[in-house]
Specification:
The complex is a heterodimer of chains A (about 290) and B (about 140).
Chain A lengths: L1 E4 L3 E8 L2 E6 L5 E7 L2 E2 L6 H7 L6 E2 L14 H7 L2 H7 L17 E4 L3 E7 L3 E2 L2 E2 H5 L3 E10 L2 E10 L6 E2 L2 E3 L7 E5 L5 E5 L4 E5 L8 E7 L4 E7 L10 E6 L5 E7 L11 E2 L2 E7 L5
Antiparallel strand pairs in A: 1-2, 2-3, 3-4, 4-5, 6-13, 7-8, 8-11, 9-10, 11-12, 12-22, 12-23, 14-21, 15-16, 15-18, 17-20, 18-19, 19-23, 20-21
Chain B lengths: L1 H31 L1 H8 L7 H23 L5 H24 L6 H29 L1
Helix pairs in contact in B: 1-2, 1-3, 1-5, 2-3, 4-5
Classes of the chains: A mainly beta (about 290), B mainly alpha (about 140).
């Protein structure tokens, strides 16, 4: 169901049982809200950061990550007029005009069905007078769909690029209470690692499979539990090779970011059709 | 047991929303019409005017907090625990007052207060079930 939601514009609401998600195509196909039983899972205190620089709520990562993508340096001054977030990024020391990927900063074309919404971007699409392939530095096509299942939200990517691409999610989850929050993940050697979040955390993992070809990163907070399930074995274009965990000091959030490649090594794949399943529950549920 | 918890989960948000509207109404009524509230519920004036005004302000603030909690999607463990105590404690106090002041309460007042007391006990049951189901 489409709803008008300030300040996100037209949003598509997906709901099933006690789970509700709000997707904002005009805001980079970001997740604007994700709740279970009236409890917000995203850290809404970062709404202003989201609106200014997409550093809050639920932005996507594509078609590149971090500052590894093409940067249209000769056009920066011209771009600043049409993309005010560039100056805001500079204020916090980020030089790349589209840090973490162009996808989150542009408006998507979207089509809905009863239980899903799919957003599309192609390099030939124009935004603010520029072709997206000009801004991204290479031609690409992206299709991201959000589907609600009885107990989860499923984010499916289908991204191809003329050059290697990166895809993933960069959702800011509410820790509720830092001192009692923790995550549990499976490492490449099969061992389980529990991380208490009472201190800042910023690390990248090679996730190992937990069941079949899939892994699970489980976030436990005082109010809710969230399982992030994704494929780590199988066809290269279907897997997420790394998992970034980011929770800076004195913040009330944690980012759990499955990524199609390992940051720092540079992306190598020109296609990703990975799927991420987000399954929220209550701590008392087994 | 699972059916009861499913029902509690389904009822939680609508009941919480209804309760917030009820608290706002009662808050405004007690705050701006304390004399009418007193004469409606009691046979004789037992409490000073300011007691009704304070009670009204309390209802109003609690109703405001409930609405804010719903809008911000903050119906977490802390909020439900607080709501549980905000239902059970006044329910117990009201039950004692109904027993002690039976003679001084009007007939219609007794019916309304008894209904309110039962409502608050049911609310505390709902919140208690939610707490047990989601966080224990």
């Amino acid at each position: 169901m489409w709803i008008e939601k300030k300040p996100f514009g037209s949003c598509f609401e997906l709901s099933s049982g006690s789970i509700r998600a709000l997707v904002a195509p005009e805001m980079g196909m970001s997740l604007a809200s994700f709740t279970i039983g009236g409890i917000q899972i995203l850290d809404t205190s970062r709404l202003k950061d989201f609106l200014l620089t997409r550093k809050g709520l639920g932005p996507l990562i594509l078609p590149h990550f971090n500052c590894e993508g093409f940067s249209p340096e000769d056009k920066i001054e011209e771009l600043k007029e049409k993309f005010p977030h560039i100056e805001e990024l500079e204020k916090i020391g980020v030089d790349h005009p589209f840090q973490h990927g162009l996808g989150r900063y542009v408006s998507w074309y979207a089509e809905e069905s009863e239980d899903s919404i799919t957003g599309f971007l192609t390099g030939d699409m124009q935004y603010m007078g520029y072709k997206l392939k000009t801004l991204a530095g290479f031609d690409f096509e992206a299709r991201v769909s959000f589907r609600i299942a009885p107990d989860s939200l499923i984010v499916a990517f289908d991204v191809t690029g003329e050059k290697p691409i990166a895809t993933g999610i960069h959702y800011y989850y509410d820790l509720v209470d830092r001192n009692s929050a923790e995550i549990e993940l499976t490492e490449r050697d099969g061992s389980t690692r529990k991380i208490k979040l009472d201190r800042p955390y910023d690390d990248t993992f090679h996730p190992g499979s937990r069941f079949g070809d899939y892994t699970n990163c489980s976030l436990k907070t005082r109010n809710y539990r969230l399982d992030t399930v994704f494929k780590v074995k199988g066809k290269p274009e279907e897997i997420f090779e790394s998992l970034v965990i980011f929770s800076p000091e004195e913040s009330g959030f944690i980012c759990i970011e499955p990524l199609s490649y390992y940051p720092g090594k540079g992306p190598t794949k020109t296609q990703n059709s990975g799927v991420i399943m987000l399954r929220p529950t209550f701590p008392g549920y087994r | 047991m699972k059916g009861m918890y499913d029902l509690a989960n389904r009822l939680m948000k609508p009941v919480f929303s209804f309760d917030s509207a009820l608290n706002l109404f009662l808050g405004l009524f007690f705050l701006f019409m304390p004399e009418r509230a007193s004469s409606f519920l009691l046979k004789e004036s037992l409490f000073p005017r300011y007691a009704w005004v304070i009670l009204g302000a309390g209802f109003l603030y609690f109703g405001y907090w409930q609405i804010r909690t719903i809008i911000r999607d903050k119906l977490g463990r802390g909020a439900v625990t607080f709501s549980f105590f905000m239902a059970i404690v006044p329910a117990v106090i009201l039950a004692i007052l109904l027993f002690l002041l039976y003679e001084k309460i009007s007939k219609i007042g007794f019916i309304v207060l008894l209904a309110g007391d039962i409502y608050m006990f049911l609310l505390s049951l709902l919140y208690g079930a939610i707490l047990k189901d989601r966080w224990e």
